[in-house]
Amino acid sequence: MSGFLWGVSTSAFQIEGAFDAGGRGPSVWDEFTPVHDNDNASVACDHYHRWREDVALMTRLGVNAYRFSIAWPRIQPTGKGPANTEGLDFYDRLVDALVEAGIAPVVTLYHWDTPLALEEEGGWLGRDIADRFADYTALVADRLADRVEMWIPVNEPAMVTLQGYAIGEHAPGKTLLFDALPTAHHLNLAHGRAVEVLRGHGARAVGTANNHTPAWPATPGDVAAAESYSEIHNWLYADPLLSGRYPDAVADLLPVQDGDLRVIHQPLDFYGVNYYNPTRLKAPSEGNPLPFELVEIDEFPRTGFGWPVVPAGLTEVISSLRERHPDLPPVYVTESGCSFPDEVHDTDRVAYLDEHLKAARAAGAAGYFVWSLLDNFEWEAGYSQRFGLVHVDYETQVRTPRDSFHWYRKVIRGE
Question: Which residues take part in binding substrate (predicted)?
Answer without folding.
Answer: 14, 111, 155, 276, 371, 378-379
